[in-house]
Amino acid sequence: MNVMPGGALRVAKTTIGGNLENGGTVQMNSEGGNR
User: Fold this and answer.
1) How far is CA 31 from CA 10, 14, 21, in A?
2) Model's pTM, two decimal places?
3) What are the angstrom distances between the C-alpha of 35 and each of 21, 25, 29, 30?
4) Spatial distance between the Cα atoms of 6 and 3, rounded to a whole number of angstroms
5) In b/e form, how buried is each residue of 11-24, taking b as 16+ CB within 10 angstroms?
6) What sign does the CA torsion over 27, 29, 34, 35 have?
7) Which of 1, 2, 4, 19 could disulfide-pair with 8, CB 3.0 to 4.6 Å?
8) Residue 18: C-alpha distances to residues 10, 32 (Å)
9) Rounded to an integer, what distance in angstroms lies between the CA atom of residue 10 and that of residue 25?
10) Which residues lie below 8 Å from residue 27, measured CB to CB, with a gap of 6+?
11) Intra-chain end-to-end CA distance of the chain, in Å
C-alpha cells in the first residue's frame, strides 16, 4: 500500500480515516469483511 501513488494513498486514507472519524462501525465492518 505504501508503494501506491499519493492518489491511492489519499483514497485509502479518506475511506479508513473517514469511517473512523465518522464512527462508521457498520461501514468499516462491511469493508473490512470484504477484505
Assistant:
1) 17, 13, 15
2) 0.23
3) 20, 15, 10, 9
4) 9
5) eeeeeeeebeeeee
6) positive
7) 4
8) 11, 14
9) 20
10) 19
11) 14
